[in-house]
Automatic annotation (TrEMBL):
Compartmental location: Cell membrane; Membrane
Protein name: Receptor like protein 33
Keyword DNA repair: no
All copies of domain Leucine-rich repeat-containing N-terminal plant-type, residue ranges: 34-75
A Pfam family reported for this protein in Swiss-Prot or TrEMBL: LRRNT_2
GO cellular component, one term: plasma membrane
UniProt family annotation: Belongs to the RLP family.
Provenance organism: Forsythia ovata
Gene Ontology BP, a term: response to other organism
Membrane association type: Single-pass membrane protein
PANTHER family to which the protein is assigned, alphabetical: LEUCINE-RICH REPEAT-CONTAINING N-TERMINAL PLANT-TYPE DOMAIN-CONTAINING PROTEIN, LRR RECEPTOR-LIKE SERINE/THREONINE-PROTEIN KINASE-RELATED
Amino acid sequence: MKLLRTPQFFFIVIISIFCITYIAPVYSQFKCLEDQKILLLELKDEFSFNSSASRKLVQWNENKDCCSWDGVGCDTAGHIISLELDHESIFAGLENSTSLYSLQYLEKLNLAFNCFNRIQIPRRLSNLTNLTHLNLSDSCFYGQVPVELSAMRGLVSLDLSNLNAGFQKLEIPDLKMLVQNLTELRQLYLDGVNISIKGNDWCRVLSSFLPNLRELSLVQCGLSGPIDSSLSQLHSLSVLRLDWNPLSTTVPDFFANFSKLTTLSLSYCLLQGLFPSKIFQLPTLQNLDLAYNFDLSGTLPQFLPTSSLRTMVLSYTNFSRSLPDSINNLIMLSRIELSNCKFSGPIPSTITNLTELLYLDLSFNNLTGLIPEFHMSKKLTHIDLSFNRLSGPLSSAHFEGLSNLGYIGLASNLLTGNLPSSLFVLPSLQKLVLNYNQFDGQIEELPNPVSSQLNVLDLSTNNLQGNIPSSLFVLPFLQNLFLYNNQFDGQIEEHPNPESSQLNILDLSSNNLQGNLPSSLFLFPSLQNLLLSNNHFDGQIAEIPNPVSSQLNTLDLSSNNLQGPIPKFFFKFQQLQTLSLSFNFFNGTLDLDMMRDSRNLTTLEVSHNNLSMFSSSNGNSTFSTSLDKLDLSANKLKGEIPTRFWGMTNGLRYLNLSFNQLTGFQNPYTIPIINTLDLSSNQLRGELPIPPSLSTYLEYSNNNFNALPEDIGNYISRARFFSLSNNSLTGEIPKSICNTSYLEVLDLSNNALNGSIPSCLTESNGRLGVLNLQRNMLSGNIPDTFSIGCSLKSLDLSQNFMTGRFPSSLVNCPYLEVLNIGNNSVEDTFPCMLMNTSLRVLVLRSNSFYGDLYCPGATQEWTNIQIIDLSVNKFTGDLSPSYFSNWKGMMNSNYNQQLDLRYKTADDHYIQATVMVIIKGQQMELQKILIVFTSIDFSSNKFEGNIPGSIVDLNSLYFLNLSSNAFKGTIPASIGNMKQLESLDLSMNHLTGKIPGELASLTFLAFFNLSFNKLSGSIPLGRQLQTFSADSYEGNAGLCGFPLNISCNPNIPPPKFENGRFHGKTDIDWNYIFASLGFTTGLGIFVLPLLFFPNWRERYFDQVDQVLLKIFHQQKGRKRRTGARVPRNQIRRL
């Protein structure tokens, strides 16, 4: 009873009486005037609207007081003063209405979110002179905003926003004319309206005519900066939104003087410079959005306890440094978005005191340290800390009690330890993303999995081990499960009730899973992607009569140990588009009719299996498929390609039959239009089959084709890649080959072609980047018709019978990187005209070049060269001491840009060039190791003088051969600083003096030859130089010491090595002899087959490919081996 006597109770009673007496009659005693009702009913009839979508107009009933109608407001006299008809699906009638403009007492008109069929804003709206609030936003108006609206002098709020991208923009050609009379305006929203105004005049116009403006929103209006200081005159401004304008300016300091500012939104404005930190400390500021200003930098200040910030969005800016501990003063903060910035240091533990926090995104920064426990932030729904450098374990305490948490993103950090099973069953958690961390151990079975709300679980690319918990597969709402790139092992158990699964994506690839594939995996009704590649699944897959995974779109079982015939039920999945079975042991025949039922199948990859031949269970009947890509490479397919195969593949974009045992084509046949056709490495013979027209990639290498049609160019007019290398082609190169105006790669190497090179190949084809004609019987002059701006990157004419002079027009090829004309009979001087080009590889070996290497006027010559072979020519003269000083391609400073001769054609095929070099007296073909290979071979010429001192600058050089010349003087001691050298041959010169002791530090030397010079003195002691045989030093009468059988002291027998130390005993330690013999024998067993047996080399590099693919797969995630194994011909597709 004491409450009735208090002043507070008395005040409540008085207020209640006032409301009943004075306010209630507004809605009860005064009714709508009859004329006003008639106008509204007429307005309803004038408007065309969707009655099923309407919630207000459709309810207007003439039998009821119109002031009670939804969307209608009246004054005390019964006049209509407010119409709220937003979201009413009105699409016509406004422009011709008479009743609307007769509502002379109307103060508020809201027609937002309708669609008036793309009409202009009616000028007659200006007749409503009592309007204070006008909202026409997002209602499909277009054209110019009528300047007549400026007559509405009483307007307080104007909203003409139009951000609907599907319609033409509204335009304001003269902002001043529109607003000059609207001095009472408090709210102005023109989002999406194109304001045509010079520079930053918009600032001066607004500040001059709208001094009382409180809310200003000009999102995406085409405004430009800088922001003029006149804007500071808007002292009452509380909301400022300028997003999506190309302001390209700094944020002015005077923004911090807006004492009433609550919202500042400047995202996507191309802002730059340093953001004024005082703006953060405005006590009234509640919402700040600076996102997507990539050049805007700044730091977070010390936040004050008086802060009102609720939303802080700085994503995709250049803000940096640490997050302040004072962030806990932002007690009202509910949303933090700081992703894709440059914040570093630990996440302050005080952030967990933000009890109002709903959304936290700190992803894509450089944050370190432990993850704080968020158990105080009970309202959190979203946590994203991914792509940082956070470390430490993850425990159940981190998210304990967060019953509203729906998203946890911790991907790409350095988190370790076991995963707590309680994490998977947080009551509201829907997405858990923990991929690319270092979590290990085994995942325990989940407690009460049926209560989980998880629909996305990503644990991929960690170190998780053991069996995959069966409870993961019974999570009732789980749709996407990513466990790839871990170390899970064991078998996958059969699902007890596969029909209940909601799984859409199941990715278990790149683990150590084994055993048979459970048939229940193919019975999940919603499954779209089943990815099981790179495991150890084995055995035969049992047929399933009626598979129910009707949604299955992608099935990848590649890189396992699966055996037996390809299951027929795979082709009964009606929605299946991609089927990858490569790198298994499937055998038997390929039944073409299996594909008859898979009408949506676009990609079928069955490479690297043991399929033996094509077969058909339905005779020779033909049918069409939707196949876009078919890869049957590296099987054991034999015999002829059946005629019906080509009918089935009509419409293919990619067909790969390489590395099989196919011998021909069953007649009659017509190869359909195929963009990429690879028939390489088979046993196809006879005349080349007519290529399909419009094809862009044609690979016929490594077969036995013997004839090239004269009109071949007419059939490959669209080809970008054409290779017939390693066949048995004879005759001349048809001139019709020049009809291929799109050709980028032409490889006719390793055949028996004769005659001359058609000059049209060099003078007319503007796109040809790689031309390989090596190892043929071509003769005559090299065409000197290379046109200006030619596109050649690699030209290989080696091992032919070319004569005449060097083609000087090659200087017109600015992109040329590889030039090999070795083993011909070209007679000319050194091609100085190429010294300033992009050339990286120059091979002139075994020709008749003569003269010295001096290039008049040279200053920066050969800066890119990495491989140069001038051996077996007639070059003469001295090499100047600074001759090699500009060869930066062989210096450490250029190491990351060393030779990578891969060329990408316009249709995304990579071509790998090759170079023949002489290493240790053996001819080797370099392919993949070109990336790090550098070599100089000047051997077998007549060079004289001293070895240039500048050669020691080439500290990335691997092979140096100056043998069989007439060099004299001493060996430069500084060669010992060329730590990368693996082969050094200075034999058969006139070198004198001692062998520099510094050479003993060349620990990578595998080949060393100083024989047949005039060297003297003792061979330097060390672990390296004594490992070479006496042959490396023979022919030097003055040399002595091990390994020569000549003692440097005539009274002491030759020394020997024991236990790594020098001893003067004469007995032999056979342990070292046998160890050396064993090492040499083992190395020979490994290396010699690589050098002399191409098939062995092919198989070896295949295995290397497999290892590299596995390594890269572990590092980069879900990289799949679905293409053909890389063939090792002279120009290769990677």
